[in-house]
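User: Some background: our group keeps a shared notebook of sequences we're curious about, and every so often someone picks one and asks for a predicted structure to add to the entry. Today it's my turn. The entry only has the sequence so far, pasted here. Could you supply the structure so I can complete it?
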Amino acid sequence: MEMLLIYLFVIALIGFIIWRKMKKKNKPIKNGLGILAPIFFILIAFSLSLSQLMHIPGQPFHLPPYWEMLIAGVLGIIFGLIMLSQTDYEVREDGFIYSKPNKNFKYVIIAIIFIRMALSQYFKGLDSIDFAVLTMTLAFIYIVIWRVGSYLKFRKLNGDNYSVNAG
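Assistant: Of course. Here's the predicted structure to add to the notebook entry:
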């Protein structure tokens, strides 16, 4: 029953991500700060989660071994670069910048979620605190790389667009 709930949650999450992407494709990006917003939201959520992990009665908090943190970091970098490669922006006729449609984006996000699920099944034998910290590390790194890289792509295009429109 617990696995069914996890699978339903993942399916709902995938649907929500695809729905939001489809909804936002016809809206211009104003200043690009919305691209960076998920970093702050996830930082707050992970801070609260770590705080709760540190205060589990009868279970001392400890970080996973460095090599496990390194592997989570490397996987986060790989996932972030894959997501960044699938994200691009374009200037349309009205002079505003829009997220460029990408037919592969939904497949990439689904693949990443399934890879993370497979890894979580593989590492079920880990201590729950280790597993939570490693998962949060991986997710935070790939979201930071993806979002900061996307913001830099947007700013570059915005700067080019500004100089074309100004001249």
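Suggested note for the entry: Residues 163-167 have pLDDT under 50 and may be disordered. Residues 128-166 form the longest helix (39 residues).
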